């Protein structure tokens, strides 16, 4: 299975590039090349597992909990406030609206 974000390889195994757009009869690749849909299997094929790796990475990022995001934002605020005393008072209310703290 292939599509947007999939790697296209020539039958010799050489990478042609990654699909960045689809047209009715071809795939446009990030390298500037095209892969004609009619020649799939005779000149090129979709590489295996490229989408699986991208999906796994995306799934991991989407699993960050609100607490983890809140902790990260507060740590960032602490670092910024140590270096910029003017911006810190302006930043805290913004963080609080996105990451309310429990009392």
Structure in words:
The protein is elongated and about 60 Å long. It has a 5-stranded antiparallel sheet, with no helix packed on it. The model has no long low-confidence stretch (mean pLDDT 75). The relative contact order is 0.12. The chain has helices spanning 50-62, 66-83, 87-98, and strands at 7-10, 15-22, 26-29, 34-36, 44-46. The chain contains 3 helices and 5 strands. The chain has 103 residues and is an alpha+beta fold. Strand 3 (26-29) and strand 4 (34-36) form a beta hairpin. Helix 2 packs antiparallel against helix 3 (87-98).
Top keywords for this entry?
alpha+beta; five-stranded antiparallel beta sheet; 103 residues
User: What does the largest sheet look like?
Assistant: 5 strands, antiparallel
Strand order of the largest sheet: 4-3-2-1-5
Strand content: 15-25%
Structural class: alpha+beta
**Gross geometry:** elongated
Low-confidence stretches: none
Number of strands: 5
Helix and strand sequence: EEEEEHHH
Rg, Cα atoms, Å: 22 Å
Number of DSSP helices? 3
Mean pLDDT: 75
Question: What distance separates the N and C termini?
Answer: 50 Å
Helix-strand blueprint:
Blueprint: E1 7-10, E2 15-22, E3 26-29, E4 34-36, E5 44-46, H1 50-62, H2 66-83, H3 87-98
Antiparallel strand pairs: 1-2, 1-5, 2-3, 3-4
């Amino acid at each position: 299975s292939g599509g947007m974000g999939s790697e296209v390889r020539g039958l010799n195994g050489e990478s042609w590039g990654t699909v960045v757009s689809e047209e009715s009869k071809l795939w446009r690749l990030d390298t500037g090349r095209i892969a004609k849909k009619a020649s799939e299997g005779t000149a090129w094929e979709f590489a295996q597992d490229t989408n699986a790796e991208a999906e796994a990475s995306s799934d991991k990022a989407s699993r960050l909990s609100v607490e983890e995001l809140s902790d990260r934002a507060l740590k960032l605020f602490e670092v910024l406030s140590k270096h910029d005393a003017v911006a810190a008072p302006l930043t805290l209310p913004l963080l609080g609206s996105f990451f309310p703290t429990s009392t």
